[in-house]
């Protein structure tokens, strides 16, 4: 009995010593383990694909992130518009792709359906930093697939030598154009035979591509031949019928023809996007005029021109083995400080709410115009069915602006073709 008691006491003493020497379970032990697991989960590096000629700003952001988290960030340039998606399709499955890519939001539906990008899991405090429309653009079927880095939408660009200030209404623009357009000079030009630009008028008059049902687009409900759309098309046709737009700006070469006329000082104002700011400004200096930028004037019905808005975003590759840390870098690179720095380096306007009143944007005429017009813009539909819209609408608009077909008949034909195209892909 004494021997058993002695052994029991020795065991108790040994447990006491081990407990005193080891970490306390409710304090240091849990924390130490957590740290070790977090460190083990860290990758040595993250790989980012940025758009061509846009990666310079990443050097600072990458260095700051590495200093804060101990993870290197490598980046390379891939042309976003035409090559990013195709290269991800090849390099992702091969294990040689990036952790993070940048894409235009209208590609999200397709790449998400193909399983190329991962759904993002971020706090609401993160998404609340951005405009609602830009977050909607990064969302597909109710799931968030990206964080916005910039937005763009057409605005009014005008020659301050020919037009002292930006008109407030399209009725004012029309009156100015009727008086100014003569001898090879034009009051206002727009590529309204191109559906990307024409949607601003059609949408502002009440047309729509796909019905938006609480954030989900319905490809079965197409509003491109409703009463509003027809009124918009009639308004577009009016400018061509009355000779306010030259025949030379119709078709594939219309954009370059319009640019040339404006840069030569022969056009008072145009509807174009922020990609034209620098070329126009440079040409203006040579030709002796300064350009101004503003949100587009309101339509005759009192509504704003409902331009298409394009949002460029950051996305995590579905093939990345470091999705959690890639998401952390997405949050880091799109915070207000880094978004402002990127704007200063690239001139691409961010959608961070806090930056709208920042002098960097507020005092920048072009950025302010884009930010204001974006409030009235609608994100281009990001569902795959949108790919079936462009060609029928382009053909329809061509017949409308050339006077070959009346708007209602042309739009009915376009919608019928769109529906057929969509049905054939199922």
- What is the number of strand segments? 14
Largest sheet: 4 strands, mixed
**Ends distance:** 84 Å
The helix count comes to 18
Specify the helix fraction band. 40-55%
Strand content: 15-25%
Report the principal-axis shape: globular
Structural class: alpha/beta
Low-confidence stretches: 1-37
What would you report as the Rg, rounded to the nearest angstrom? 28 Å
Mean pLDDT: 90
Textual characterization of the structure:
This protein is an alpha/beta fold and 426 residues long. Helices cover 47% and strands 17% of the residues. It is built from 18 helices and 14 strands. The strands form five sheets. Strands 3, 6, 13 and 14 form a four-stranded mixed β-sheet that branches. Strands 8-11-7-12 form a four-stranded mixed β-sheet. Strands 1-2 form a two-stranded parallel ribbon. Helix 9 (195-204) crosses helix 10 (227-241) and helix 17 (390-401) runs antiparallel to helix 18. The chain is globular, with a radius of gyration of 28 Å. Mean pLDDT is 90; it is low at 1-37.
Summarize it.
This protein is α/β, with parallel strands linked by helices.
Key traits:
disordered N terminus, 18 helices, four-stranded mixed β-sheet, 426 residues, globular, alpha/beta
Annotate the secondary structure layout.
Blueprint: H1 2-21, H2 28-41, E1 45-50, H3 58-69, E2 72-77, H4 80-94, E3 100-104, H5 108-113, H6 124-127, H7 132-137, E4 139-140, E5 143-144, E6 147-152, E7 155-159, H8 170-180, E8 186-189, H9 195-204, E9 208-213, E10 216-223, H10 227-241, H11 254-263, E11 267-272, H12 277-287, E12 291-294, E13 308-316, H13 323-333, H14 336-346, H15 359-362, H16 365-374, E14 378-379, H17 390-401, H18 407-424
Parallel strand pairs: 1-2, 8-11, 13-14
Antiparallel strand pairs: 3-13, 4-5, 6-13, 7-11, 7-12, 9-10
Helix pairs in contact: 9-10, 17-18
